[in-house]
């Protein structure tokens, strides 16, 4: 982890993304919380309280450093994680949905399609074909 932190410190000031987020102590703590508890129903207010900032201060800082608002980042991270689970596990779509914070398979499928461009079932089928090929 120290090597990653040193690399992040060497990034240009205008660099955005989660690696750049490691340079900012508040954003780094927020990222750690989001990644550690992917299924939690986070709000920006709660995340801000956990890292010691107001909701608006965290939202502004996160957006400036990461390049996305916190909840948009969380949705994208959840869908990336879900895509890997769908590709590399035999878990049901509902099991994956629950792991990434969705209580409804339909809501998860809508969010997944919006972010990944295709429904989870199609993603899994096409990914399995790609992995086998």
UniProtKB/TrEMBL annotation:
Domain HTH araC/xylS-type: 28-126
Keywords of this entry: DNA-binding, Transcription, Transcription regulation
PROSITE patterns documented for this protein: HTH_ARAC_FAMILY_1, HTH_ARAC_FAMILY_2
Keyword set includes Transcription regulation: yes
Domain of life: Bacteria
Pfam families cross-referenced by the UniProt entry: HTH_18
Keyword DNA repair among UniProt keywords: no
GO molecular function, one term: DNA-binding transcription factor activity
Entries under SMART domains matching the protein: HTH_ARAC
Protein name as annotated: Putative arac-family transcriptional regulator
Origin species: Nitrococcus mobilis Nb-231
């Amino acid at each position: 982890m120290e090597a990653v932190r040193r690399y992040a410190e060497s990034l240009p000031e205008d660099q955005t993304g989660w690696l750049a987020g490691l340079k900012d102590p508040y954003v780094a703590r927020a990222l750690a919380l989001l990644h550690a508890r992917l299924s939690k129903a986070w709000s920006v207010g709660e995340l801000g309280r956990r890292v010691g900032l107001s909701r608006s201060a965290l939202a502004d800082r996160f957006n400036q450093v990461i390049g996305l608002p916190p909840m948009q980042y969380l949705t994208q991270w959840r869908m990336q994680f879900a895509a890997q689970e769908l590709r590399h596990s035999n878990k049901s779509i509902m099991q994956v949905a629950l792991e990434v914070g969705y209580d409804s398979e339909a809501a998860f499928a809508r969010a997944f399609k919006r972010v990944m461009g295709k429904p989870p079932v199609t993603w899994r089928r096409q990914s399995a074909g790609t992995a086998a090929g």
